[in-house]
Amino acid sequence: MSRIRVCFLGTPEFAATSLRALLADEHFEVVGVVTQPDRPSGRKLQLTPSPVKQLAMANQLRVVTPESLKGNPLIFAEIKKWGAEIAVVVAYGQILTEEFLQAFKLGAVNVHGSLLPLWRGAAPIQRSLEAGDRVTGVSLQKMVKRLDAGDVIAERTLEVSESMDAHELFQRLAILGADLLHVELMDYIRGNLAPKPQDESLVTYAKKIEKAESLINWNLPAEKIHNKVRAFAMGPGTHIQFQGKKLKILKTKVFRNESGQLPPSKLHEAKLNPGQILAVHYEGQVVPDRLIVQCNPGFLEILEVQPESRNRMSSQEFLKGHPLQPKDLL
Q1: Is it the case that residue 94 has pLDDT exceeding 90?
Q2: d(Cα 236, Cα 166) in Å, to the nearest integer?
């Protein structure tokens, strides 16, 4: 079989991992790339090409960067000139029209960062972490007009540890997604793999993350707060207001008093309100350099923070400049 001509659509590093896999695969020829326009980035807000565009340019591929494919006949005509047989879409960031999806002889497929039908939508990896899922994965699906509702061609699963944050999960799922394109995509094209319909009764949606969600509420259970911290690690992050300024909470863990770190009686004696620092005593001594906060219920240990206009730091470094006391409100 001759090489399959591919039109690739994607934007972030997650998608660039899949593009690298296709470029290295002798079964495919990437004839052109569609990605989002350059966006302001960094403190100086300089226009910066997406990771996919940077990779495409480095490999001398044809690239178009429309604000939208909808209502853009000139760009659509340019893409059709490439003669692609299939469209591969990975975290592109735009809704595609039915006309576009039907423009390829072999249709369009999508690598999606969840085990469909769970977490359809804009932020599947983050919402899965926020929900505390212990198993997640990636799906290769046929694209249809409805959001992430196409038949599933194949999937890869991954166990999620309690300490895994969005940075690590994105990287690991990106590799699994690229493997789907390397193995199952060709099996699907050859007719050796039959896509399966999604079970509509199991559908959940991963709505776009809003900045307003990043403020931590100590009245939530410790585990829920911890899950939000690791889910939002790639943006928009999580924070509290401390002494009139924003304090970013970068890394946490649920404090479970493992190995008898504290006598159980001391936990009961604390009688704290949500947001207060735990009175940590052991054999009459304050346990140093531990920032543990009462939640509702449970305790959350803060491991890394970032004060306004400062670099990220450990809680130990933070406490040197902010000598907090037990029962202080964080």
Answers
A1: no
A2: 11
The full set of domains in the chain, from first to last, is 4-206 (3.40.50.170), 212-321 (3.40.50.12230)
Query: Which string of b and e fits 112-141 if b means at least 16 CB within 10 Å?
Result: bbbbbbbbbbbbbbbbbbbeebeebbbbbb
Residues with Cβ within 8 Å of 5's Cβ and at least 6 positions away in sequence, in order, are 28, 29, 31, 82, 83, 84, 85, 86
Cβ proximity of 155 and 139 under 8 Å: yes
**How does DSSP classify residue 195?**
-
Q: Has residue 109 got a pLDDT over 70?
A: yes
- What is the overall mean pLDDT for the chain? 91
Rounded to 5 degrees, what are φ and ψ at 121? Answer: 120, -160
Tell me the C-alpha distance between 150 and 195, whole Å.
9
pLDDT tens digits for range 305-317: 999 989 999 988 8
Classify residue 108 by burial, with Cβ atoms within 10 Å: 0-12, 13-18, 19+. buried
Q: What does pTM read for this prediction?
A: 0.91
* pLDDT surpasses 80 at 264: no
Query: In 3-state terms, what secondary structure has residue 165?
Result: coil
- Return the structure tokens found at 278: 């735990």
Quickly state the pLDDT bin for 256 (edges 50, 70, 90). Answer: confident
Please give the structure tokens belonging to residue 168.
């690590």
- CA 195 from chain center: how many Å? 25
